[in-house]
Structure formats: C-alpha cells, structure tokens
Design a protein that fits this description.
single chain, 146 residues, mainly beta, Immunoglobulin-like, globular, signal, DUF6299
Length: 146
C-alpha cells in the first residue's frame, strides 16, 4: 500500500505542475526593478534565549502574501534554527525586517553564526499555495548578548 500511495502522490503533484500557468515574458526593464534581502552583521540573544535578527528587503508586487523568513546556524552548518517571519510590503521600496524567535533551549550562544534570510511568496497554483522565491541572502554574523 505505501508504494501505491507514493505513486498516487507523485501523479497528483505532476498534475498540479502541468496545470500551472506558464510564465509570460517580462515587459519591464529588469535593471530598474531589484528584489533583494540583506542581513545585518549583528544579531541579539536575550537572557530568555530568544534571538533577534534583522536586515532590509525590497520586492515588487506579488500575487500572494510575501514573507521574510530567517534561520541561524552556529557550529554545525547542517543544523539551522528558524527565527520568525515578517510579512513583506512589496512596493519596490526598501524596508526593514526584524524577526525574533526562540530556538531549542541553550541551542545558541553569543559569538559567530551564519544567518540565511529568504524573501518568499505564497502563490496559489491550482488548489495549493506554493512557495515562489524572490531573493535569498546568507551572511556571517555575530550574535551578541542583550
């Protein structure tokens, strides 16, 4: 039965992809429209273990909700901790983002770390909202107590 379920899931996924609208030609000059996300070089760890990360983003209008998500790793790069998410305003202007989250107890400490921020839109394709990535930035940072 598990093999049949997997085959049905793959067939359903393929049908969704085939039903997705195709991309159209971009009519604007891409040199004038930039989508980006940055990460500030310093993050904070509070006494309660919560981590605050920040940076900037810029995006153009999307068809679905857009978010700035962030994650941090320290030591082992394969272990990442999600640190909140911020709803983005996609008007072509630069905006600040600030995400705060509390990873597993004692998971992070002040010092060197690596942060990844992603500007991602949820676009409805068929019946499911699927992620569409606008920008991503990885940045080595220093986590400070406070």
């Amino acid at each position: 039965m598990p093999v049949r379920s997997a085959a049905l899931a793959m067939a359903a996924g393929a049908a969704l992809l085939l039903a997705a609208p195709t991309a159209t030609a971009v009519t604007h000059d891409a040199r004038h429209v930039t989508e980006s996300v940055t990460v500030d070089p310093t993050g904070r760890i509070a006494a309660d273990g919560s981590v605050t990360l920040s940076g900037t983003y810029r995006c153009t209008a999307g068809t679905g909700p857009v978010f700035v998500s962030s994650s941090v790793s320290q030591g082992d790069p394969s272990v990442r901790y999600g640190i909140g998410g911020t709803r983005a305003v996609c008007d072509g202007l630069e905006h600040r983002w600030v995400n705060t989250g509390t990873p597993s107890q004692n998971a992070l400490e002040p010092g060197a770390a690596h942060v990844e921020a992603t500007l991602m839109e949820l676009r409805t394709t068929g019946i499911l909202p699927l992620p569409s990535f606008h920008a991503r930035q990885g940045q080595d940072v220093t986590l400070t107590a406070g």
